[in-house]
Write a structure and sequence with these properties.
This protein is an alpha+beta fold and about 180 residues long. It has one domain: Aminopeptidase, CATH 3.40.630. Helices cover about 35% and strands about 35% of the residues. The chain has six helices and eight strands, in the order ββααααβββαβαββ. Strands 1-2-3-4-5-6-8-7 form an eight-stranded mixed beta sheet, sandwiched between helices. Helix 1 crosses helix 4. The model has no long low-confidence stretch (mean pLDDT about 95).
Amino acid sequence: MIAQFNGFEINAVHEGDAWKLCNFMIANADRLKRYFPKTLEQNLNPTLSQLFVEKMVKQFELKDEFLFTLKHSETRELAGVIYIKELDWDKKQGEFAYCIGYTFKGQGVTSKAIKELSKYAFNDLELETLQIIAHKDNLPSVNVALNTKFRWQKTLKNEFTPTGEQPLDMELFELHRPSRF
C-alpha cells in the first residue's frame, strides 16, 4: 500500500484489478470519454482490461509510467485511478492525471489522494517537479490542483485534442519539491 486516508487507500495497480478497472471505466464512461479516451478504449471489456493492467504493471516496474488505484478500504470499491506519467528522469519531473468515479465526486477524495501521492513522488521516486494539466472549464480538476498547492504556470496552446473535437488550450500547474516534505 502506498498510502491510506479517511477510509481510502492508494495502491500500485496489480493484475487482480482488471475486473474492477473494467467495471469502473464502463460505469464512468461519460466522465472519462473526453479526457481519458485512450484509457477508456483499453478497458471496454474484461479481456482488454486484463491486457491493460498487465501492460501498466510492467510500466510501473520499469518506472516508465505509474498507475495507482484509489479504493474504498471497507467495500474495496474502485473510487478512482491516478497516473504519474510523462516522466522525465533527467529533469526529475512527472505529471499527474486522475479521474474519480461518480459515486465519490465532490468529496475531496482526489485532492487527498494527490497530496499523498505527491509525498510518494517526492520521497520515493525522488521527483523534483510535479505537474497537473487541466482545461480551465474542468473546474473539479483545476480545484484539485489549487487545493493541493499546485501553482498555475501558463496556458499551453492547443495542448490536448479530445476525440472528435478541436485542440484545446490547457492550463499548466506545478508543485515543486519542498526543502523538506
